[in-house]
Here is the input.
Amino acid sequence: MLHDAFQAAALLSGLVEAARARRVLRIGAAGACDDAVTVYLPGCNLGCVHCWAGPDREDPVGAAPLWPYATLRERLRRFHRQNRLAAASLRIRLSGGEPILSERFFDLLETMLGLPGRVFVETNGVVLGGHPEWGAWLARLRQRVTLKVSLKAGTAEQFERLTGASREAWESSWTAVQTLLAAGACFDLNALTLAAELFTAAERAALLERLTTIDRRLVDCLEEERLTAYPGTARRMRAAR
Ligand code: SF4
Here is the structure.
């Protein structure tokens, strides 16, 4: 049965977000965004069959303690000072599960912007698409913030098949793209269009066509990716067979 990704986001927000605090899985550096220091956040409002997240996706409360933002800032400063992983000291990435669940995301973002460097936010765009006014806020931060929007599917049917969420969420992610573009926010796009396990040729073509319909230049912003066999991905793909 399909789930409502907006309701799921609201429920998850109640579990992982609090006043000036957020559940955090860990801080690390994984090579993405040119070796940005990554804050891994637990939980997601989608249930992608290929998801790379760990068991925290299903159990965000048990997997991750609540960190006050003052603690998060201090731990990031300490990570920067010690930095045994040679992470880029001027890049912070919010990833893991879904960072944008509610307006409280902007408190987290403000905390990150209190540190030096650029902030990358990896998002499925679903909640963002439901709040067009956020596009202007993010556009004002374009010198410091890059949104990385992960497009899940070229058709509504494929979206439902891959994410377990109903198609309104798919439409919302496209609205997010349109909103960011119209507002002038800094963003790029990615999709696993080169993963034959997930995309047929027709579904890839449909995704590219949808981008072209919004703005031809968006195709150049799209990073087409193959599937990486992360442990979470392999486990979930096996279970879905
Ligand atoms: S792949 Fe991304 S959007 Fe999909 S369930 Fe995992 S964290 Fe959420």
Remarks:
- The radius of gyration is 17 Å.
- Residues 44, 46-48, 51, 53, 97-98, 124 surround iron/sulfur cluster (CB under 6 Å).
- The chain has one domain: 5-240.
